[in-house]
Amino acid sequence: MAKKAHMKVLETLKKAGAKQGFLTYDQINDYLDEDASLEEMGEIYESLGKLKVDVVDSVEEGRARVERKKAKKKPAESVLPAQPVRFDDPVRMYLREMGRVPLLDRQGEIEIAKRIEKGQDMVLQTVFRSASSVKELSSMGTKVKTEKMTLEEFVRVDPQGFGATGGPTDKDRAAVLTRVRRISRAHSELEKLAAKPPRASWTEKQRQDYDKKRSTLRARVNDELKEMKLHPKVAERFVTRLKDLQERVREAEGEVRDVEEETGLTAEEINLLVKGNDLKSGRRRGGRLSQEDLEEYAKQIKNSKRK
C-alpha cells in the first residue's frame, strides 16, 4: 500500500472509531488493500489503541462494550486502570493473514496426491534402469514364492479386496510374481539391445525400429512397476541401495585415479594388464598381482609406448 493511501486509510479509521467508540476487524479489513503488510496493520492497531478505540469481532460486541463503559463510569479515584486492548495480538494478526489465503479444497488435495504419485513413479523408473535393481527384485520375488517374505511386505495390497481368507490368495501372489518375471525379461531384452547399439551402416528405418523396440521395452517395465505397486518400504530400500552403489562407484573411481598416479598408466592400460595372458604368474600366487608384478608390467607398457 502506498504511503499516501495508507495515511488516508488511517485517518478514516480514526474518525470512524471515534464516532462509534469501537471498530470491528471486518470494518478495518474493508478499508485495507489486499497487499497491506503486517507492519502497516500494526501501525493502524497501535494508533487505534492510543485513541482508546476498542477493536472487536462484531458490531454487537462493540455496542455492548460501549454500554458497559457508560454504566460503569465512576469518580476518577475509583476508576481502575483500563485493561489493555489486544489490538496488536500477533496471533490474531497471523490468523487474519491466514484468512486471506484460500484453503486447499478436495480437488486441490487430489492434484497434489497425483503429483506425489507421479514423482514416486519417476523415481522407481530411474532406479529400475539399473540391472542390479532388477536382479534384487527377482531375488525378492523368489522369497515371496518360497514364503520367506509375505506379499504384504513386498507390495501394497488392498485389504478390502480380500476374500473369505482374510488375506492375499495364491492367485494374488501368482499375479505379482508374473509381473516380476515380465520386468526381468523386458530388462534382459534391453540389455541385449544395449550390447548391440546402432551401427554407422544402418539405414534410417533400422534406427527407428531399434529406438521403437527400446522404447516399447522400457514402457513395459514402467507399466509393470506401476501396476505391481511396490510397498513404500521396499521402494525406499531400492533407492537407498542404489545410492550406496553410487557411493561405492565414486570410491572405486578415486582408487583408480590413485593407481593411475602411482603407476603412470591409464585405467584402460591397467585393465589390459589385468586381463592379459601374461598374468599367469600372478594367478598362480593366489589370483592377485603382487606389487613387484604390477611394477614390472607397468615398465613393460611404458617401454612399449616409447617404441
Summarize the structure in words:
The protein has 307 residues and is mainly alpha-helical. It has 3 domains: 3-99, no CATH class; 108-248, no CATH class; 264-306, no CATH class. 70% of the residues lie in helices and 2% in strands.
Q: What's the topology here?
A:
Blueprint: H1 3-20, E1 22-24, H2 25-31, H3 38-50, E2 54-56, H4 59-71, H5 90-99, H6 106-127, H7 131-145, H8 151-154, H9 170-195, H10 204-228, H11 232-263, H12 267-275, H13 280-284, H14 291-306
Helix pairs in contact: 1-3, 7-9, 9-10
Instruction: State the major sheet.
Output: 2 strands, parallel
Bin the helical content.
over 70%
Overall pLDDT: 78
Number of strands: 2
Q: How many structural domains are formed by the residues?
A: 3
* Count of alpha and pi helical runs: 14
- Adjacency order of strands in the biggest sheet: 1-2
pLDDT < 50 stretches? 277-286
Shape, please?
A: elongated
User: Based on helices, strands and strand pairing, what is the structural class?
Assistant: mainly alpha
What string gives the helices and strands in order?
HEHHEHHHHHHHHHHH
Distance between the termini: 81 Å
Strand residue content = under 5%
Tell me the radius of gyration.
38 Å
